[in-house]
Amino acid sequence: MTGPTTTSTTPSAPLEVSDVVGLLFELHDVLQGGAA
Question: Which residues of 2-25 are buried (b: 16+ CB within 10 A; e: fewer)?
């Protein structure tokens, strides 16, 4: 998702995990109404 050079040779696992975690936190804040 967030990568200047995202190829099939580069391990995109950590990037995807980080993005997913970030999205989860954002969604959690939105659900709680903490995202102003």
Answer: eeeeeeeeeeeeeeeeeeeeeeee
Contact (CB, 8 A) for 15 and 2: yes
Residue of higher predicted confidence among 17 and 14: 17
Q: Is the pLDDT of residue 29 over 80?
A: yes
| DSSP track, 1-36 | ---SS--SSS--HHHHHHHHHHHHHHHHHHHHT---
Report whether 1 contacts 16 (CB < 8 A).
yes
